[in-house]
Amino acid sequence: MTVKVLYFARLREELGRDGEQAELPAEGCTVAGLWENLHGEPPPQRLMTAVNQSQAGPDTPVRDGDEVAFFPPVTGG
């Protein structure tokens, strides 16, 4: 399955990119599982996320074609 991943604020600067397409092996992935698949470690505790522009938690399912955004808890406007 393919999902679009977006990074905002400090994460974008640290990773050196504003997003990427992620190919995941199968259905049944969560937001936390996506982060672990991409970065090889559990997501930071205070990481905020959105799936398809709706606030999401680490256990929120990720499905083929979803857009997942990761951002720090405080971002500027």
Provide an overview of this structure.
One of its GO terms (cellular component) is molybdopterin adenylyltransferase complex. Keywords: Nucleotide-binding. InterPro entries: Beta-grasp_dom_sf (IPR012675), MOCS2A (IPR044672), Mopterin_synth/thiamin_S_b (IPR016155), ThiS/MoaD-like (IPR003749). The chain is α+β, with helices and mostly antiparallel strands. The protein has one domain (about 1-70): Roll (Ubiquitin-like (UB roll)), CATH 3.10.20. Helices cover about 20% and strands about 35% of the residues. The chain has a five-stranded mixed β-sheet. A hairpin with a 2-residue loop joins strand 4 (about 50) and strand 5 (about 55). The radius of gyration is 11 Å and the shape is globular.
State the helical fraction: 10-25%
Query: Which residue ranges are poorly predicted, with pLDDT under 50 across at least 5 consecutive positions?
Result: none
Based on Cα principal axes, name the global outline. globular
- What topology, given as strand order, has the largest sheet? 2-1-7-4-5
> Any idea what the radius of gyration is?
11 Å
CATH class reads Alpha Beta
Share in β-strands: 35-45%
- What count of helical segments does DSSP give? 2
CATH architecture tag: Roll
- In CATH, the homologous superfamily goes by the name Beta-grasp domain
Quote the CATH topology. Ubiquitin-like (UB roll)
Q: What is the average per-residue confidence, as pLDDT, rounded to a whole number?
A: 92
Distance between the termini: 32 Å
Order of secondary-structure elements: EHEEHEEEE
**Tally of separate domains:** 1
> How does the helix and strand content classify structurally?
alpha+beta
InterPro entries: Beta-grasp_dom_sf (IPR012675), MOCS2A (IPR044672), Mopterin_synth/thiamin_S_b (IPR016155), ThiS/MoaD-like (IPR003749)
Family: Belongs to the MoaD family.
Pfam families: ThiS
Keywords: Nucleotide-binding
